[in-house]
Amino acid sequence: MTIFIKAPAKINLTLDVLNKRSDGYHEVEMIMTTIDLSDRIGLSEIKEDKIRIISQNRFVPDDQRNLAYQAAKVLKEKFKIKQGVSITIDKAIPVAAGLAGGSSDAAATLRGLNQLWNLGLTLDEVAEIGAEIGSDVSFCVYGGTALAKGRGEKITHLPAPPNCWVILAKPSIGVSTADVYRNLDLTTIRHPNSNAMIDAIYNGNYEAICKEMGNVLETVTLKTHPEVQHIKEQMERFGADAVLMSGSGPTVFGLVQYDSRLQRIYNGLRGFCDQVFAVRMLGDRFSE
Ligand code: ATP
Question: Whose CA is nearest to atom 11 of ligand 1?
């Protein structure tokens, strides 16, 4: 039996870092939403008691470094599963891009194995297990729109923002999240106003959402990777309503409401950037 699960990417409408904790993690406050750019995870039972990762993408590790592998391992150990599984990862989300691709693959693997192995876990229980694998995994278990606090694992669900297009452009560089956090200077950053963003989302106020977007990690990545700054400027020039880097980058996204303007921005970006996507926000959370 094989089951297929969708693993959507996320964007950060806000990303704030409050402080560095004594355990080495950063205390964050992020408002994230899932978008219609998804990997596809296939899960099949295999005879051998092993976890096998299959992916055509050369940037995706096929061993224990893969977050989907770690997800299967955690469940196997916790629930003493003696069954092997083959995990096929059909990648559409760019790797090391600030779009939580690996975390979403892990979350989809947890949701899928909960089904395949009849574990009967609630989504809250799956999200709690997800937090052991990575900071963004809990959010990815639920999808939709949420405020994430703590290391990223404390989730408060929010309504879907008003419908709009999301245009993403990823320059052909990878960014290490760990390096970006290491180089962040907490004394000089301008914090986004998470509460104002939450109000804007509750009010369905598109203009206010655009106005309140902010990501403190831009202070690091825009300096070390000028191509990210360049994409931001071009997206603004082509007419996006608001433009921001997602996560630790290097992907930049722009919001736009009108189809006519979408085409102009898309074509303009394609002139100098290989990976450009125009997608919708997903809106809904996954159900139990
Ligand atoms: P985040 O936004 O959560 O910081 P990201 O989008 O920047 O994540 P990923 O695409 O998750 O980054 O990849 C980061 C690294 O994780 C990659 O360089 C890769 O080696 C490793 N990795 C582990 N599992 C996966 C996976 N399933 N898909 C892609 N990369 C993975």
Answer: 102
98 CA from centroid of ligand 1 (Å): 8
Judge whether residue 200 has pLDDT over 90: yes
16 lines ligand 1 (CB under 6 A): no
Mutate to test the pocket of ligand 1, among 67, 110, 244 (most ligand atoms within 8 A of CB): 67
The reply to whether ligand 1 has any atom less than 6 angstroms from the CB of 105 is yes
Which tens digit of pLDDT belongs to each residue from 130-159?
A: 999 999 999 999 999 999 999 999 999 999
pLDDT tens track for 104-127: 999 999 999 999 999 999 999 999
Q: Which domains does the chain have, with CATH numbers?
A: 2-158 (3.30.230.10), 165-280 (3.30.70.890)
Q: Is 10 a catalytic residue?
A: yes
3-state secondary structure the chain: CEEEEEEEEEEEEEEEEEEECCCCCEEEEEEEEEEEEEEEEEEEEECCCCEEEEECCCCCCCCCCCHHHHHHHHHHHHCCCCCEEEEEEECCCCCCCCCCHHHHHHHHHHHHHHHHCCCCCCHHHHHHHHHHHCCCHHHHHHECEEEEEECCCEEEEECCCCCCEEEEEECCCCCCHHHHHHCCCCCCCCCCCHHHHHHHHHCCCHHHHHHHCEECCHHHHHHHCHHHHHHHHHHHHHCCCEEEECCCCCCEEEEECCHHHHHHHHHHHHCCCCEEEEEEECCCECCC
Active site residue 136: yes
Q: Please compute the mean of the pLDDT values over residues 39-56 and round it to a whole number.
A: 97
